Amino acid sequence: MSEVMRLENVWKIYRVGDVETRALKGVSFSVCKGDLTAIMGPSGSGKSTLLNMLGLLDKPTSGRIIIEGRDVTGLSSNEIADIRNRKIGFVFQQFNLINRLTVLENIELPLIPRGIPRNIRVRRVIEALKMAGGDESWLPKKPNQLSGGQQQRVAIARAIVGEPEVILADEPTGNLDRSSARLVMDTFLRLNDAGLTIIIVTHDPEIANCTKKIVVLRDGVIKSIEEPRSEKCILRTT
User: Fold this and answer.
1) Is the pLDDT reported for residue 238 higher than 60?
2) Of 157, 161, 141, which is closest to residue 95 (Cα–Cα)?
3) Which intervals hold domain ABC transporter (predicted)?
4) CB atoms < 10 A from the CB of 234, how many?
5) What is the mean pLDDT of the chain?
6) What are the strands, taking DSSP E only, across 3-96?
7) What ranges do the domains of the chain cover?
8) Which residues pair with 7 in a beta bridge?
9) What pTM, to 2 d.p., does this model score?
């Protein structure tokens, strides 16, 4: 499988006054096309920091970030933002939808900076929402008129509408009941079956056991890369 992104000996050190926190300690990690990977570890282990590095939301203190063979570590903020918009989709625990906008307007947001005409944006929004397991009847509604599980599927539609190379999901089922979590995870499984590369930060072993690979972090270091127990994947709805 072709490599989509890679971290090489990445350190991330936060300093506040005289206090130094080493969130990542020389992490090297590769993401290949078609991966479905879970990142697990206790609170404070560096999971979200690792996801932020992969998503180009933060810069490493040292080390390199390679996207499709290109070292992007030293690029300008505008160049990095352009790569992030075109290559990476994000799904968050809190959904991060804008309640004053309709579902349609939320999903089309990643397409607006690209100058895509409105009629094409609408068509792509509808396609993405259906791929995410949503319904066209949601389009004129505001996010707060939907259930939590429905909002997360809207967030997934927003993440995939720009046809990114990778989806990064940070505790995407953390705010959902079991039924909604099952629907959201089944959406990720179907998208991965269709070829989309997905990385999920989770504390939930049932979610992790539905992936293809589990990366275990502890104290800013990758402690192990494990095979999931596929027989424990109870979340697929079909």
Assistant:
1) no
2) 157
3) 5-237
4) 11
5) 92
6) 3-16, 19-32, 36-40, 62-67, 70-71, 88-92
7) 3-232
8) 29, 65
9) 0.91
